[in-house]
Each structure stands twice: as C-alpha cells, then as structure tokens.
Amino acid sequence: MGQQLTRTTKSVVLFLIISLGFAFAWASQSFASDDNDEEAEIHDTILRQIEAFANNDGEQAWAYASEGIKRRFGSSQVFVDMVREAYPAVHSAIQIEFTESVPHGVFHIQVVKLKGPEGKSWDAYYRMVQVENVWKVAGVRLQPADIGI
Fold it and tell me: Quick one: which of 82, 116, 79 has its CA closest to 96?
C-alpha cells in the first residue's frame, strides 16, 4: 500500500509540475503577445502620422499628436508648419524603419530610422504616450544617423 501511495503522490506531483509549466508558458506567451500588440499599435500610430504629413492632411496628422503637443502648438496648421520646417525628415520621409522600442513606465521611446527628402539618414526618437488605450505622439527628437565606418 505504501508503494502505491508513493506512485500516486509522484503522479500527482508530476501532473502539477507539468500543469504549472504549461501555465507559465501560456502566461509568458500572453505577455509577449501584449507587448507585440502594443508595439504594433505604436508603429501604426507613427506610420499613420507620417502618411498624413505626406498627404498634406494636417488635421489627420494632428489627430495622432498628444494633448501636450496640441496645447503647445494650439492648432494643426501651426503644428504642421513647424514639422515641415524643423523636421523635414519626418514630414517628408522617403524611407522608414522601426528599430528599438523601449518602455519607460507611462511612455515608450520608439526609435525609427528615417531617410529624409534630401537623402540624409536620421534617427528619430518618438516619445509615445497612451491615452484611453490609444497611442499618441508626444514628441520627436531627430539626430543625424551614425553612418559608421
């Protein structure tokens, strides 16, 4: 009887270990899926804003801006004029590549490699915030891309 109890105990323990393994695997896939969904939403927001700039649709580009950006510039026209003048690689990008995405608590930094209309390469650091489950552009810092050796 003692040997049968030991086998039963071993079977139960093995079942629990396997079940926990599946639970952890499922949970980690679920979290990874959430991260991938979040990253895809961030990419979509950035692409749609760049597309709006390319189509001279200032109102649509403005829709992807955060409330802080909207308070700072006051109107879509002022915003678009500023982007056209100060950020031509964003306003008229001819090539876009998403690289690193770094979460920072309440915001994310998304690094985007851009080629501007004049052919220069730039690294754009998009500060993204989520408001009511929608990602918005809260700022962009541009710097010339490191071309390397």
Answer: 116
Is 149 among the domain residues?
A: no
d(CA 53, CA 60): 8
| Cβ neighbours, 10 Å, residue 64 | 21
22-37: pLDDT as tens digits: 443 444 444 445 678 8
Spatial distance between the Cα atoms of 97 and 140, rounded to a whole number of angstroms: 15
Give how many domains the chain has, as a whole number: 1
Domain holding 71, by residue range, is: 2-144
Distances (CA, A) of 84 to 25, 42, 136: 47, 22, 19
Report the CATH number at residue 55. Answer: 3.10.450.50
pTM, 2 dp: 0.74
